[in-house]
Every structure is written in structure tokens, then in C-alpha cells.
């Protein structure tokens, strides 16, 4: 590292996600990370409540994952995937096919979750083009969703309440049904069902697919909706010949208490997008899985899927993913997630009466406190760091997605920090 103050250099020259270079949010210099802790360069140690944006489900520097990468490093770091294959990619595809719903038999690897959504969109559009029905090229989703920051993915994010409103003039115009208000654990209301059904029946002849985050809407609002609603959507897709794409990037690999969130509804998609926890938070990797119907349709008469990332199926990443999946399935992940859910419910639910709180919701290893107005991110972030925890709020949401093996005492530190942060909000809120 150069002699210059590295944090000052970062502030002046490095563009962090969702920040302004004119008034950047503070960035804290990290020295190392181990287990569920992040150590800052100034010696402070933080309990991690974010699992590195939800992907480090086993914690940091896990010896099994690190060893898998070291072993692969001795063989090769990368090789093009065009016309070449290798054991880690084959092993990962085998694992994914075995653990996902049976119709998903074909795996396309890419670099990130957003790109996996782009690939899914290409798949469904190419499928209908190959079937001689090119008019079926639009997509239907629900408001409040988030599927990534690339252009195809942005087009199915909420165009008004999401993060991409300024791009609306240049994005493809897709269809949006109202977000279901029926909460997880409740039957879907007739209002929710009728609203979605009206849109899909009116437009099914031009729809290539419905694209949804199953059960949990992540960065679009951390909303947990009724499994009954998802079942209804899947039935309508089957009836009206519309493909179903499920974005399990945030929810896959156990985060909601099932391996995949679609299992809460007993729903099987035509296409599934995976990312984030796929490698246990070690190396960026994503996958798009397709049913035999979709793969055969695209491939009819010599058709090829028109996508090919340079670093797809990177050997280091696929080796890490194989190790992460084995570590997950060989361990008590379900018990750990259930314990986190119980503790988060017990410690966050009392905050629902706080004057700054609009709602509290918990599902699996996800705990959400929704405030009555957007929070001052920089000020609240400083408070959390002073409290010895790493929690990254956004909008009106203060939430937790910790690694699965986070000890109960550390979970309590996280929830107490949120409680004290709410008190800080109350003291700094503007008067009437």
C-alpha cells in the first residue's frame, strides 16, 4: 500500500456502489475477515450482520473453501469455456442439477447474479423465437422487485419505486402487476390474485415469461409475500403457456429456511437464476438453470444460446462452489437457519412498538426492521461501527442477513445495535 492515506485515496478516486463521488459515504478500511467478524485496519472488530451482501453464508476465510481454492490454484486459475471443460464445472453442474427441482437439467454459468438474469431473459425470448412465436417477447413481473443493475435486469426491476427510474426511457417496456400485499404465512388475498391474473390473461399472447423473486423481494424492499400467491402465479403460467423464471439469487442455498424459496410453495420454474451464496462468498459466480423444454426449444434446428462470458465457469470459482455446496449439505444448515429465525423473531419483534418503526418481519435467516422514513445512512452506519457491528441499511430498511453459524451472543449484539440505532434516529429526527 502506498504511503498516502489509503482511505483518503479511496474517497477521492474509487466509486463505491450506489454512492456519489461529490459526497461519498464513508468507507471503512478492512484488514481481514474471519468467521463472522470483520477486522478494521484501526483494530476494531465488527460482528458481521450482512454476510457480505448475503453471500458469505459460512462466514469468512472458511478453511474448507480456502483449501478448495488453493488446491485448484495449483492446477489452473482459468481456461476459456468455449470448446473446453474441466472437473470443477462438471462437478458443480452435477450438484446443482441434483439439488434443484428435477426439470432443471441444463446449467449455464456466468459471472454475477445480474448476468444470470440477463441470460434467463435471453433464454425465454430465444425459446419463443425458435418456436415460431416471436411476438412472445415481453416479460411480466410484480412491483417492488429487484433483479440486478444491468440493462435487461433493470427492465424488470420496479420502474418507479426502484433504483433505476432515470433509465426508463431507454429500457424495454415490460409489464408490472401490483406487489402482493398478502404476507408470508397467509393465504393470498382475492385482491392480489385478481390483480395479477388480470394482467397475465390480458397479455399472455405477448408474454415470454413471468420473472419473480420467489417469496422474498430483496433489494427492492425486503418484502416477504404469500406462498399461495406464488402457487397461483405458477398455475396461471402453466395454463396460459407463459414460462416462469425464478430469481433465487438472494434466496438460494437455505437463506429462507428451505434450500430454495420456491420450495415454500412447491413450485417448479422453467428457468432459475442463482448467485450470491453459490461460492460461499469467495469468488464471483452465478448460474442459470433451464428445463429440458427450454433447452431443447432453443436448440431446435441448430439454435444456440447467444451468450458467452469470458470468465464463465472459472475453475477457481466453480471449485469453491462445489466445496460450499458440500459444506452446506453436510452440515446442520437447516437447524442453524431455524435457530437464527427464532432468535431474530424474539429480539426484533419487540421493536415493532418503537415510534420510529413501521414494520418488523423475519423469515429464515433474514430479519428486517422497516422505519417510518428513510434513514440517514452515513450517520447510522457510524453508530453501528461504534457499536461493534457491521449493518448496512438502505432506504427505510435496517436488516440482518448474517452467516448461518453466527453465535447467539453475536446475533444479540446485532439486534441490540439496531435497537440503539432506532433511538439515535428518534433523537435526530427533525421536529414538526
Question: What's a quick, concise take on this entry?
Answer:
With 432 residues, the chain is of the alpha/beta class. Helices cover 36% and strands 17% of the residues.
Q: Would you list the SSEs in sequence order as H and E?
A: HEEEHHHEHEHEHEEEHEEEHHHEEHEEH
- CATH topology value of the largest domain: Aspartate Aminotransferase, domain 2
Compute the number of helices. 13
What would CATH call the homologous superfamily of the largest domain? Answer: Type I PLP-dependent aspartate aminotransferase-like (Major domain)
> Roughly what is the average pLDDT, rounded to an integer?
95
Largest sheet: 7 strands, mixed
Number of strands: 16
Low confidence ranges = none
Number of domains: 2
Secondary-structure content class? alpha/beta
- Specify Rg, calculated over alpha carbons: 22 Å
Cα(first) to Cα(last) distance is: 49 Å
Q: What is the CATH C level class of the largest domain, in words?
A: Alpha Beta
**Fraction of residues in H or I helices:** 25-40%
Give me the CATH architecture of the largest domain, please.
Answer: 3-Layer(aba) Sandwich
SS strand fraction: 15-25%
Gross morphology is globular
The strand order across the widest sheet is: 4-12-11-10-7-5-6
The protein's oligomeric status is: single chain
Amino acid at each position: 500500500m502506498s504511503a498516502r492515506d489509503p482511505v483518503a485515496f479511496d474517497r477521492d478516486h474509487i466509486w463505491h456502489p450506489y454512492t456519489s463521488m461529490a459526497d461519498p459515504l464513508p468507507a471503512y478500511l478492512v484488514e481481514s475477515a474471519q468467521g463472522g467478524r470483520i477486522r478494521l485496519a484501526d483494530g476494531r472488530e465488527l460482528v458481521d450482520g450482512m454476510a457480505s451482501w448475503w453471500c458469505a453464508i459460512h462466514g469468512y476465510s472458511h478453511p474448507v473453501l480456502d483449501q478448495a481454492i488453493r488446491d485448484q490454484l495449483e492446477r489452473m486459475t482459468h481456461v476459456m469455456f468455449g470448446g473446453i471443460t474441466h472437473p470443477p464445472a462438471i462437478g458443480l453442474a452435477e450438484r446443482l442439477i441434483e439439488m434443484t427441482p428435477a426439470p432443471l437439467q441444463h446449467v449455464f454459468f456466468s459471472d454475477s447474479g445480474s448476468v444470470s438474469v440477463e441470460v434467463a431473459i435471453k433464454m425465454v425470448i430465444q425459446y419463443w423465437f425458435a418456436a415460431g412465436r416471436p411476438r412472445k417477447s415481453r416479460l411480466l413481473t410484480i412491483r417492488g422487485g429487484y433483479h440486478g443493475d444491468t440493462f435487461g435486469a433493470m427492465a424488470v426491476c420496479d420502474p418507479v419505486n426502484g433504483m433505476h427510474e432515470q433509465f426508463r426511457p431507454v429500457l424495454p417496456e415490460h409489464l408490472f402487476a401490483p406487489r402482493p400485499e398478502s404476507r408470508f404465512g397467509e393465504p393470498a388475498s382475492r385482491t392480489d390474485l385478481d390483480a395479477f391474473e388480470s394482467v397475465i390473461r390480458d397479455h399472455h399472447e405477448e408474454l415470454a415469461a413471468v420473472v419473480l423473486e420467489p417469496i422474498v423481494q430483496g433489494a427492492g424492499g425486503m418484502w416477504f409475500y404469500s406462498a399461495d400467491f406464488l402457487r397461483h402465479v405458477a398455475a396461471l403460467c402453466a395454463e396460459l403457456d407463459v414460462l416462469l423464471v425464478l430469481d433465487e439469487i438472494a434466496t438460494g442455498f437455505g437463506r429462507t429456511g428451505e434450500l430454495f424459496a420456491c420450495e415454500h410453495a412447491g413450485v417448479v420454474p422453467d428457468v432459475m437464476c442463482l448467485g450470491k451464496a453459490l461460492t460461499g462468498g469467495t469468488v464471483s459466480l452465478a448460474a442459470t438453470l433451464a428445463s429440458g423444454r427450454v433447452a431443447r426449444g432453443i436448440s431446435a434446428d441448430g439454435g444456440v444460446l447467444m451468450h458467452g462470458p469470458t470468465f464463465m465457469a472459472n475453475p477457481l470459482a466453480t471449485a469453491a462452489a462445489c466445496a460450499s455446496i458440500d459444506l452446506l449439505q453436510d452440515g446442520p444448515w437447516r437447524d442453524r437457519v431455524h435457530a437464527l429465525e427464532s432468535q431474530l423473531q424474539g429480539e426484533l419483534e419487540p421493536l415493532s412498538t418503537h415510534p420510529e418503526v413501521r414494520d418488523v418481519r423475519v423469515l429464515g435467516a433474514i430479519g428486517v426492521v422497516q422505519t417510518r422514513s428513510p434513514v440517514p445512512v452515513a450517520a447510522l452506519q457510524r453508530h453501528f461501527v461504534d457499536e461493534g457491528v457491521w449493518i448496512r441499511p438502505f432506504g427505510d430498511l435496517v436488516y440482518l442477513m448474517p452467516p448461518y453459524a453466527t453465535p447467539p451472543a453475536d446475533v444479540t449484539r446485532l439486534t441490540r445495535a439496531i435497537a440503539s440505532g432506532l433511538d439515535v434516529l428518534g433523537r435526530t429526527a427533525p421536529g414538526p
